[in-house]
Amino acid sequence: MSYVSESFWHDAVNKATCDLFTFGYKHVVKPHFVFNHTPDVAHDQMIEFCRVTKNIPPLMWLLREMLDYTDPILETETMGVRFANPFGLSAGLDKNCDMPVLLDHAGFGFETVGSTTSRPCAGNPKPWFHRLPEYDSMMVHVGLANDGSETVIPRAEEAWRRAKAMQVSVSIARTNDAQCGDLDEGIEDYRISMERAAGRTAMIEVNVSCPNTHAGEPFTQTPEALDRLFTALDTVERPQPTLVKMPLNKPWPEFRELLQVLAEHNVQGVSIANLQKDRTGLEIPREWEGGLSGGPTYRASNAMVANTYREFGDRFAIAGVGGVFTPEQAYAKIRSGASLVMFISSLMYRGPQQITVLKRGLARLLRRDGFDSVAEAVGVDVD
Ligand SMILES: Cc1cc2nc3c(=O)[nH]c(=O)nc-3n(C[C@H](O)[C@H](O)[C@H](O)COP(=O)(O)O)c2cc1C
């Protein structure tokens, strides 16, 4: 295997095209093709763009040649899964599995498809999104709209098998519709999707922390409820590792209790964390519903990553997510204990070359500080 980092010309072209994409997205694409539409329309158009272009192989080849930065220092292994790099798309942007071909060619280490639910789900009434560019944030109120796990998981399986280098994970959540019942009904809903996902993706993420549903978040309200859910999920045999998507707005003692429960179950990783519910200090119209992504999640999520690493060490692999816009921010999450780093908002605000910006920058920072791999830097700031 030849790495881009080891070829003078390929490396120079990769850097130049990355800079060109950064300029083009900021000055042309974003103002004239994305931000001139409402975020709901721009989101639909982006998904449609992925559906069409994934069937144009020369375009995908070009994307790979221009954007995919490969470097041995970025390769990593965690939970028994090998990654070309630690960066992944977080759950929620690609609920129905339309993006893997593009993301694979652009050089993502992994993608989280979903969240998907046992029944197809229409989600909440629109608008689903509001932009808050002053905070590098989106207000999200989708409510888990998706085609249902019976349809989405086979798509994810096929995408995983076909991917050149990218790992594919699937996020499963509880259906958000009028049929939602008691805790047992919710547990059965997750169990159905877990059975469908067993053995069909590189990883499974269990989303217990969606802030935008009528049933709320019953499985993070008490350790007992979480224990009941994972006792049921333990009965589903599966070869791939399981991560749990954690809530952001919990005081550390409560968060720790939830982790103590998960430590007793078939759970290998935690994704920290979901959307920010706290609007303190932010000027946001009251009538806007939903959780915040991007900037407002960054500090709180880093603190939870560090606390989790400090107290649980190697028991859980941590996928750090929330407000990663620069290589320095990704590096800070790794140094706080994250083995993997996920993002969505920076893709929307900065453009598709963001994956290349983060990879190039992280490789530079690791070398600057004398590390030979990502794994060596995990948790070094935590005492
Ligand atoms: C458009 C959008 C949809 C999302 N939907 C989901 C979802 O379905 N499941 C989930 O676990 N998280 C969902 N999230 C939360 C993200 O996975 C992530 O935790 C959060 O956005 C923080 O990352 P960021 O700052 O890089 O955007 C969503 C976020 C966004 C922006």
Automatic annotation (TrEMBL):
The protein's Enzyme Commission number: 1.3.5.2
UniProt enzyme class: oxidoreductase
GO BP annotation list: 'de novo' pyrimidine nucleobase biosynthetic process; pyrimidine ribonucleotide biosynthetic process
Pathway where it operates: Pyrimidine metabolism; UMP biosynthesis via de novo pathway
Keyword presence, Oxidoreductase: yes
Location of the Dihydroorotate dehydrogenase catalytic domain: 74-366
Gene Ontology, cellular component aspect: cytoplasm; membrane
GO molecular function, one term: dihydroorotate dehydrogenase (quinone) activity
Keywords: Flavoprotein, FMN, Membrane, Oxidoreductase, Pyrimidine biosynthesis
Obligatory cofactor(s): FMN
Classification via SUPFAM superfamilies: FMN-linked oxidoreductases
PANTHER family tied to this protein: DIHYDROOROTATE DEHYDROGENASE (QUINONE), MITOCHONDRIAL, DIHYDROOROTATE DEHYDROGENASE (QUINONE), MITOCHONDRIAL-RELATED
NCBIfam families, A to Z: PRK05286.2-4, pyrD_sub2
The protein's name: Dihydroorotate dehydrogenase (quinone)
Origin species: Bifidobacterium moraviense
Organism lineage: Bacteria, Bacillati, Actinomycetota, Actinomycetes, Bifidobacteriales
